[in-house]
Amino acid sequence: MLTLEAHVVALPMRVPFRGVTTREAMLIRTDRGWGEFAPFVEYADAEAALWLAAGLDHDWPAPVRLHVPVNATVPAVPASQVAEVLARFPGCTTAKVKVAQAGQSLRDDVDRVAAVRELVPNVRVDANAAWTVDEAVTAITALGELEYVEQPCASVDDLAAVRRRVSTRIAADESIRKATDPLLVARKQAADVVVLKVAPLGGVRAALRVAEQCGLPVVVSSALDTSIGIRAGVALAAALPELPFACGLATTSLMAADVVVDSLDGRGGSIPVRDVVPDPSLLARYAAPREREQWWRDRLARVLELLP
């Protein structure tokens, strides 16, 4: 029978990210170590089960590199705030910029990307599937030279259509991690790059299998994790045979707090392959309110029943 210790934290965000102002996460300790269970609150239990499987997984392959290069992440802030955001990512020479935010215009995106480009040489953008095919083509043209555009449209067919019409690389994220068939992207030649996240795919080795079967360059990214979740992402990135792009694993810098003293935050432009454990005083300081803790414990009990 699985014996575990669980702590629920509520970590304030420096700026809202995908609508989140406080990141809630459950940190789980078993006899094999610490893991993270933090599916976003709107996710159903069946989807959350993959996140729990990842949080309980410590069967990681040996690393082939000791440091993982990482990118800065710029939320959909006004262009005037870009320098302040990038200052939290010293040493990063690549930035991922959120675009297509509800309530904002293409001009906002163009201005934000231009402000980033003045400070960082390599720029990629993430539209979170918000555009139609025609909107994507228009936006990509307006945004100028980019390393790649992540998930411009929702469907795999639309990704393929955009890819045929632009010269910029297309990256697939939601079409991998939220798909019943994560290999469809490769079969339909809908992307040049795949973005893999450990938690939504069920663990490091499960994500490695997707990478191997897709046969496309991989960027390992965070699901807005604490350093405990980031450590699993680092394990995946460190095990990949090739890593041609910086990874989106420096996202603890978007939070105003973490659960470890020495965060895996990507200072210097990379994250070392090293273990981390939660600090008891930080778990206590950022403990979620009692009603939210109970909500997570109830969720954990339900999702545990879904695991094989």
Index terms:
alpha/beta; 2 domains; seven-stranded parallel beta sheet; globular; TIM Barrel; Enolase-like, domain 1
Please describe what this structure looks like:
With 308 residues, the chain is of the alpha/beta class. It folds into two domains: 5-57 and 281-304, Enolase-like, N-terminal domain (Enolase-like, domain 1, 2-Layer Sandwich); 67-279, Enolase-like C-terminal domain (TIM Barrel, Alpha-Beta Barrel). Helix content is 34%, strand content 19%. The chain has helices at 45-55, 82-86, 106-117, 133-143, 156-165, 174-177, 184-187, 198-201, 204-214, 227-239, 280-285, 290-304, and strands at 5-17, 20-30, 33-37, 67-69, 72-74, 94-98, 122-126, 149-150, 170-172, 193-196, 218-220, 270-272. The strands form three sheets. Strands 5-6-7-8-9-10-11 form a seven-stranded parallel β-sheet. The chain has a three-stranded antiparallel β-sheet with strand order 1-2-3, sandwiched between helices. Strand 8 (149-150), helix 5 (156-165) and strand 9 form a beta-alpha-beta unit.
Enumerate how many helices there are, as a single number.
12
What portion of residues belong to β-strands? 15-25%
Give the radius of gyration: 19 Å
What is the CATH homologous superfamily assignment of the largest domain?
A: Enolase-like C-terminal domain
Strand order of the largest sheet: 5-6-7-8-9-10-11
Query: Can you give the mean pLDDT?
Result: 96
Short description:
With 308 residues, the chain is an alpha/beta fold. It has helices spanning 45-55, 82-86, 106-117, 133-143, 156-165, 174-177, 184-187, 198-201, 204-214, 227-239, 280-285, 290-304; strands at 5-17, 20-30, 33-37, 67-69, 72-74, 94-98, 122-126, 149-150, 170-172, 193-196, 218-220, 270-272.
